[in-house]
Amino acid sequence: MKRMLPSLFLLVGFLSLWEMYCRVSGVSKTILPAPSDIFQSLITYRDILVVHTIQTLEETLIGLLLATALGVGVAILLFLFPRVRAAVYPLLVFSQTIPIIALAPLLLIWFGFDLLPKVIVVVLYCFFPIAIAVTDALHAVDQNSVDLLKSMRASNWQILYFVRLPSALPAFFSGLRISATYAITGAIVGEYVGAYKGLGVFMQTSANSHITVLVFAALVVIALLSMVLLGFVSVLERMFTPWKNV
């Protein structure tokens, strides 16, 4: 709490100035709604926001789980097979030069407007940070620990399981933390391109109707979801890397 207090004071001060400006200047709610109006809209439209939030959260969690499994699997594959790494690693880096939002319309054409294309967009957003972080961490293990297990005639798989993977956990959670912030964005991008429901659709329809306060309400929900995801990743990191907290 001591670490969060400065940020909380800054946030409260910013919201207070925002509220004061909206009340004093008389700016239209269509241009800039006051924080109190945004909070009121969260309460008034909570039912429809819950429906869209559940859809976006489902896309986010499924995509993030698939990206995590795929990223770790690819990292292990690249580590175990150096020739595959030499061929695939540059392509992974090159793939990040392609804007994912440009691929979203193609995914909609190929897979329709259901859940799958949004999940694929989330996977594309989240896969790279995890794969690269774990790949580099597997190669950066303390060589003394590896030599110790080799002196005990441990196999490469045993060294991977007992030394390399545990040592790569901090880097894995760093990549997962980055991916968690991208996951919501990926889901929103997929919904913006084409979907039946979700916070992206809600924001788009609200903007088209010039109901700016609802756009801000959706942004608040998105920010809260991102904070919850980051908090959950931090809890998992404390559970699986207790030596970092000593």
Task: Outline the structure in words.
This protein has 10 helices and no strands. It is mostly helical. It is globular. Helix 9 runs antiparallel to helix 10 (212-240). The longest helix is centred in the C-terminal third of the chain and has 38 residues, at 156-193.
Annotation keywords:
single chain, 246 residues, mainly alpha, 10 helices
Order of helices and strands: HHHHHHHHHH
Distance between the termini: 19 Å
State the shape.
Answer: globular
Give the amount of beta strand, in percent.
under 5%
Residue ranges: pLDDT <50 for 5 or more in a row?
none
Would you tell me the structural class of the helices and strands? mainly alpha
Radius of gyration: 22 Å
Please, how many helices? 10
Please give the largest β-sheet: none
**Mean pLDDT value:** 86
Helix amount, in percent? over 70%
Number of strands: 0
Tell me the layout of helices and strands.
Layout: H1 5-25, H2 35-44, H3 46-80, H4 82-95, H5 100-111, H6 115-139, H7 143-151, H8 156-193, H9 199-208, H10 212-240
Helix pairs in contact: 2-10, 3-4, 3-6, 3-8, 3-9, 5-6, 6-8, 7-8, 8-9, 8-10, 9-10
Summarize the structure.
This protein has helices at residues 5-25, 35-44, 46-80, 82-95, 100-111, 115-139, 143-151, 156-193, 199-208, 212-240. With 246 residues, it is mostly helical.
